Protein backbone atom coordinates (compact mmCIF):
# COMPACT_ATOMS: atom_id res chain seq x y z
CA UNK A 1 0.00 0.00 0.00
CA UNK A 2 1.24 3.47 -0.88
CA UNK A 3 2.76 5.28 2.09
CA UNK A 4 0.59 8.30 1.30
CA UNK A 5 -2.61 6.28 0.97
CA UNK A 6 -5.27 7.69 3.34
CA UNK A 7 -5.95 4.29 4.92
CA UNK A 8 -2.28 3.78 5.75
CA UNK A 9 -2.24 7.09 7.61
CA UNK A 10 -5.58 6.64 9.36
CA UNK A 11 -5.63 2.91 10.15
CA UNK A 12 -3.33 3.01 13.23
CA UNK A 13 -5.42 5.86 14.64
CA UNK A 14 -8.79 4.14 14.14
CA UNK A 15 -7.43 0.91 15.68
CA UNK A 16 -6.05 2.85 18.65
CA UNK A 17 -9.38 4.59 19.16
CA UNK A 18 -11.13 1.19 19.43
CA UNK A 19 -8.60 0.01 22.00
CA UNK A 20 -8.94 3.24 24.03
CA UNK A 21 -12.74 3.15 24.01
CA UNK A 22 -12.87 -0.53 24.97
CA UNK A 23 -10.44 0.11 27.84
CA UNK A 24 -12.65 3.03 28.88
CA UNK A 25 -15.69 0.74 28.85
CA UNK A 26 -14.11 -2.00 30.96
CA UNK A 27 -12.86 0.60 33.46
CA UNK A 28 -16.34 2.12 33.68
CA UNK A 29 -17.96 -1.31 34.09
CA UNK A 30 -15.59 -2.08 36.96
CA UNK A 31 -16.31 1.23 38.73
CA UNK A 32 -20.06 1.12 38.17
CA UNK A 33 -20.33 -1.98 40.35
CA UNK A 34 -19.65 0.10 43.45
CA UNK A 35 -20.10 3.76 42.48
CA UNK A 36 -22.96 5.91 41.16
CA UNK A 37 -23.52 6.22 37.42
CA UNK A 38 -23.35 10.00 37.69
CA UNK A 39 -19.91 9.92 39.30
CA UNK A 40 -18.48 7.57 36.66
CA UNK A 41 -19.87 9.52 33.70
CA UNK A 42 -18.84 12.85 35.28
CA UNK A 43 -15.22 11.71 35.65
CA UNK A 44 -15.14 10.71 32.00
CA UNK A 45 -16.57 14.00 30.77
CA UNK A 46 -14.42 16.16 33.01
CA UNK A 47 -11.23 14.53 31.74
CA UNK A 48 -12.42 14.76 28.14
CA UNK A 49 -13.21 18.45 28.60
CA UNK A 50 -9.71 19.23 29.87
CA UNK A 51 -8.27 17.26 26.97
CA UNK A 52 -10.48 19.06 24.45
CA UNK A 53 -9.56 22.50 25.82
CA UNK A 54 -5.85 21.71 25.60
CA UNK A 55 -6.11 20.40 22.03
CA UNK A 56 -8.37 23.24 20.86
CA UNK A 57 -6.27 26.01 22.36
CA UNK A 58 -3.07 24.59 20.92
CA UNK A 59 -4.39 24.12 17.40
CA UNK A 60 -6.85 26.99 16.99
CA UNK A 61 -5.80 29.55 19.61
CA UNK A 62 -8.03 31.30 22.13
CA UNK A 63 -11.03 31.42 19.84
CA UNK A 64 -11.24 27.63 19.46
CA UNK A 65 -14.65 27.62 21.19
CA UNK A 66 -16.37 29.88 18.65
CA UNK A 67 -19.03 28.02 16.68
CA UNK A 68 -21.31 28.74 13.74
CA UNK A 69 -23.95 26.35 15.08
CA UNK A 70 -24.29 26.95 18.83
CA UNK A 71 -27.80 25.54 19.22
CA UNK A 72 -26.99 22.43 17.18
CA UNK A 73 -23.75 21.87 19.10
CA UNK A 74 -25.66 22.01 22.39
CA UNK A 75 -28.37 19.60 21.24
CA UNK A 76 -25.94 17.05 19.79
CA UNK A 77 -23.80 17.20 22.94
CA UNK A 78 -26.88 16.49 25.08
CA UNK A 79 -27.70 13.53 22.83
CA UNK A 80 -24.24 12.09 23.41
CA UNK A 81 -24.54 12.71 27.14
CA UNK A 82 -27.77 10.71 27.20
CA UNK A 83 -26.09 7.96 25.22
CA UNK A 84 -23.11 7.83 27.58
CA UNK A 85 -25.31 7.79 30.69
CA UNK A 86 -27.47 4.92 29.41
CA UNK A 87 -24.44 2.99 28.18
CA UNK A 88 -22.66 3.10 31.52
CA UNK A 89 -25.83 2.39 33.51
CA UNK A 90 -26.66 -0.68 31.43
CA UNK A 91 -23.13 -2.10 31.76
CA UNK A 92 -23.85 -2.76 35.43
CA UNK A 93 -26.10 -5.61 34.31
CA UNK A 94 -24.95 -6.60 30.81
CA UNK A 95 -21.83 -8.50 29.72
CA UNK A 96 -19.28 -6.18 28.16
CA UNK A 97 -19.09 -7.74 24.68
CA UNK A 98 -22.84 -8.19 24.15
CA UNK A 99 -23.62 -4.76 25.58
CA UNK A 100 -21.10 -3.14 23.25
CA UNK A 101 -22.61 -5.05 20.32
CA UNK A 102 -26.04 -3.55 21.06
CA UNK A 103 -24.45 -0.10 21.17
CA UNK A 104 -23.22 -0.69 17.62
CA UNK A 105 -26.84 -0.48 16.51
CA UNK A 106 -26.32 3.29 16.29
CA UNK A 107 -25.45 3.31 12.55
CA UNK A 108 -28.55 1.21 11.85
CA UNK A 109 -30.75 3.61 13.82
CA UNK A 110 -29.11 6.49 11.95
CA UNK A 111 -30.23 4.96 8.65
CA UNK A 112 -33.87 4.93 9.74
CA UNK A 113 -33.72 8.34 11.42
CA UNK A 114 -32.01 10.02 8.47
CA UNK A 115 -35.43 10.23 6.79
CA UNK A 116 -37.09 12.66 9.27
CA UNK A 117 -33.88 14.33 10.52
CA UNK A 118 -31.98 14.95 7.28
CA UNK A 119 -34.66 14.32 4.67
CA UNK A 120 -32.57 11.57 3.07
CA UNK A 121 -33.91 8.51 1.29
CA UNK A 122 -31.81 5.48 2.31
CA UNK A 123 -30.75 3.12 -0.46
CA UNK A 124 -31.85 -0.50 -0.58
CA UNK A 125 -28.41 -1.58 0.66
CA UNK A 126 -28.79 0.68 3.70
CA UNK A 127 -32.18 -0.80 4.51
CA UNK A 128 -30.80 -4.33 4.17
CA UNK A 129 -27.92 -3.44 6.50
CA UNK A 130 -30.35 -2.02 9.05
CA UNK A 131 -32.57 -5.13 8.92
CA UNK A 132 -29.53 -7.39 9.29
CA UNK A 133 -28.32 -5.38 12.28
CA UNK A 134 -31.67 -5.68 14.03
CA UNK A 135 -31.67 -9.42 13.31
CA UNK A 136 -28.32 -9.67 15.08
CA UNK A 137 -29.79 -7.89 18.08
CA UNK A 138 -32.68 -10.39 18.22
CA UNK A 139 -30.12 -13.19 18.44
CA UNK A 140 -28.45 -11.39 21.34
CA UNK A 141 -31.57 -10.29 23.23
CA UNK A 142 -33.38 -13.63 23.33
CA UNK A 143 -35.08 -15.47 26.19
CA UNK A 144 -32.50 -17.45 28.11
CA UNK A 145 -29.56 -15.44 26.80
CA UNK A 146 -27.17 -13.43 28.96
CA UNK A 147 -28.54 -10.18 27.48
CA UNK A 148 -32.21 -10.99 28.14
CA UNK A 149 -32.49 -8.21 30.70
CA UNK A 150 -34.32 -4.85 30.88
CA UNK A 151 -30.92 -3.16 30.71
CA UNK A 152 -30.72 -4.25 27.06
CA UNK A 153 -33.52 -1.78 26.29
CA UNK A 154 -31.49 0.93 28.04
CA UNK A 155 -28.48 0.05 25.88
CA UNK A 156 -30.65 0.21 22.76
CA UNK A 157 -31.81 3.67 23.84
CA UNK A 158 -28.13 4.59 24.21
CA UNK A 159 -27.62 3.55 20.58
CA UNK A 160 -30.65 5.63 19.57
CA UNK A 161 -29.22 8.73 21.26
CA UNK A 162 -25.86 8.07 19.65
CA UNK A 163 -27.51 7.79 16.24
CA UNK A 164 -29.13 11.21 16.74
CA UNK A 165 -25.73 12.58 17.83
CA UNK A 166 -24.16 11.23 14.63
CA UNK A 167 -26.86 12.72 12.42
CA UNK A 168 -26.69 16.13 14.10
CA UNK A 169 -22.90 16.16 13.72
CA UNK A 170 -23.54 16.42 9.99
CA UNK A 171 -25.47 19.63 10.68
CA UNK A 172 -22.34 21.48 11.90
CA UNK A 173 -20.20 21.45 8.73
CA UNK A 174 -18.62 24.88 9.26
CA UNK A 175 -17.06 24.06 12.65
CA UNK A 176 -13.57 22.61 13.10
CA UNK A 177 -13.28 19.14 14.69
CA UNK A 178 -11.52 20.66 17.72
CA UNK A 179 -14.45 23.03 18.29
CA UNK A 180 -16.95 20.20 17.98
CA UNK A 181 -14.94 18.05 20.42
CA UNK A 182 -14.91 20.96 22.90
CA UNK A 183 -18.71 21.27 22.92
CA UNK A 184 -19.15 17.50 22.96
CA UNK A 185 -17.15 17.29 26.19
CA UNK A 186 -17.91 20.60 27.90
CA UNK A 187 -21.71 20.47 27.78
CA UNK A 188 -21.70 17.07 29.46
CA UNK A 189 -19.12 18.14 32.04
CA UNK A 190 -21.11 21.26 32.98
CA UNK A 191 -24.46 19.43 33.26
CA UNK A 192 -22.99 16.58 35.30
CA UNK A 193 -21.04 18.93 37.58
CA UNK A 194 -24.30 20.73 38.40
CA UNK A 195 -25.91 17.39 39.29
CA UNK A 196 -22.96 16.08 41.29
CA UNK A 197 -24.17 17.39 44.70
CA UNK A 198 -27.33 15.28 44.35
CA UNK A 199 -25.61 11.90 44.59
CA UNK A 200 -25.12 9.97 47.81
CA UNK A 201 -21.61 8.59 48.32
CA UNK A 202 -21.66 5.47 50.51
CA UNK A 203 -17.88 5.73 50.71
CA UNK A 204 -15.04 7.66 49.13
CA UNK A 205 -13.13 5.97 46.32
CA UNK A 206 -9.95 4.15 47.27
CA UNK A 207 -6.57 5.19 45.85
CA UNK A 208 -6.78 2.63 43.05
CA UNK A 209 -10.29 3.78 42.17
CA UNK A 210 -9.21 7.44 42.06
CA UNK A 211 -6.59 6.40 39.48
CA UNK A 212 -9.29 4.61 37.48
CA UNK A 213 -11.56 7.66 37.60
CA UNK A 214 -8.68 9.77 36.25
CA UNK A 215 -8.06 7.16 33.55
CA UNK A 216 -11.65 7.51 32.31
CA UNK A 217 -11.04 11.07 31.16
CA UNK A 218 -7.63 10.30 29.66
CA UNK A 219 -8.93 7.28 27.74
CA UNK A 220 -12.00 9.17 26.53
CA UNK A 221 -9.92 12.12 25.38
CA UNK A 222 -7.36 9.96 23.60
CA UNK A 223 -10.08 7.87 21.99
CA UNK A 224 -11.93 10.88 20.62
CA UNK A 225 -8.69 12.52 19.46
CA UNK A 226 -7.62 9.39 17.56
CA UNK A 227 -11.09 9.07 16.06
CA UNK A 228 -11.17 12.68 14.86
CA UNK A 229 -7.60 12.49 13.55
CA UNK A 230 -8.42 9.31 11.63
CA UNK A 231 -11.51 10.79 9.99
CA UNK A 232 -9.53 13.90 9.03
CA UNK A 233 -7.06 11.68 7.15
CA UNK A 234 -9.45 9.25 5.45
CA UNK A 235 -13.14 9.08 4.40
CA UNK A 236 -15.63 7.72 6.92
CA UNK A 237 -16.80 5.06 4.47
CA UNK A 238 -13.25 3.71 4.26
CA UNK A 239 -12.77 3.58 8.02
CA UNK A 240 -16.19 2.35 9.13
CA UNK A 241 -15.38 -1.41 8.98
CA UNK A 242 -12.38 -0.94 11.25
CA UNK A 243 -14.41 0.66 14.04
CA UNK A 244 -15.64 -2.83 14.91
CA UNK A 245 -12.25 -3.68 16.44
CA UNK A 246 -13.80 -1.96 19.48
CA UNK A 247 -16.12 -4.97 19.77
CA UNK A 248 -13.20 -7.39 19.48
CA UNK A 249 -11.39 -5.64 22.33
CA UNK A 250 -14.57 -5.68 24.42
CA UNK A 251 -14.85 -9.45 23.97
CA UNK A 252 -11.24 -9.94 25.05
CA UNK A 253 -11.64 -7.66 28.07
CA UNK A 254 -14.91 -9.29 29.04
CA UNK A 255 -13.19 -12.67 29.19
CA UNK A 256 -9.95 -11.56 30.87
CA UNK A 257 -11.46 -9.19 33.46
CA UNK A 258 -14.94 -10.59 34.12
CA UNK A 259 -14.55 -14.19 33.01
CA UNK A 260 -17.41 -13.98 30.51
CA UNK A 261 -17.33 -15.22 26.92
CA UNK A 262 -20.38 -15.01 24.62
CA UNK A 263 -22.20 -18.25 23.84
CA UNK A 264 -22.61 -19.54 20.29
CA UNK A 265 -25.86 -17.71 19.45
CA UNK A 266 -24.51 -14.48 20.91
CA UNK A 267 -21.35 -14.82 18.81
CA UNK A 268 -23.57 -15.35 15.77
CA UNK A 269 -25.60 -12.24 16.62
CA UNK A 270 -22.43 -10.18 17.05
CA UNK A 271 -21.11 -11.52 13.73
CA UNK A 272 -24.34 -10.48 11.99
CA UNK A 273 -24.08 -6.98 13.46
CA UNK A 274 -20.43 -6.67 12.41
CA UNK A 275 -21.19 -8.08 8.96
CA UNK A 276 -24.02 -5.63 8.39
CA UNK A 277 -21.85 -2.72 9.51
CA UNK A 278 -18.87 -3.74 7.37
CA UNK A 279 -21.15 -4.33 4.38
CA UNK A 280 -22.69 -0.92 4.85
CA UNK A 281 -19.27 0.68 5.03
CA UNK A 282 -18.14 -1.02 1.81
CA UNK A 283 -21.37 0.02 0.10
CA UNK A 284 -20.88 3.66 1.11
CA UNK A 285 -17.29 3.47 -0.09
CA UNK A 286 -18.38 2.27 -3.54
CA UNK A 287 -21.02 5.00 -3.74
CA UNK A 288 -18.51 7.72 -2.88
CA UNK A 289 -16.05 6.39 -5.48
CA UNK A 290 -18.77 6.34 -8.15
CA UNK A 291 -19.77 9.94 -7.36
CA UNK A 292 -16.16 11.10 -7.61
Strand content: under 5%
C-alpha termini separation: 21 Å
Described by strand count, sense and barrel closure, the largest sheet is:
none
Q: In percent, how helical is the residue content?
A: over 70%
Report the count of strand segments.
0
Which structural class should the secondary elements be placed in?
A: mainly alpha
Element string (H = helix, E = strand): HHHHHHHHHHHH
Number of domains: 1
Overall spatial form: globular
Helical element count? 12
Low-confidence stretches: none
**Could you tell me the radius of gyration in angstroms?**
19 Å
Question: Average pLDDT value?
Answer: 84
**What would you call the quaternary organization?**
single chain
Structural description of this entry:
- The chain has 12 helices and no strands.
- It is 76% helix and 0% strand.
- The protein has one domain.
- It has helices spanning 6-32, 37-60, 70-91, 96-103, 106-118, 124-140, 151-169, 177-195, 207-233, 236-239, 245-258, 264-291.
- The protein is globular.
- It has 292 residues and is mostly helical.
- Helix 5 (106-118) packs across helix 6 and helix 6 packs antiparallel against helix 12 (264-291).
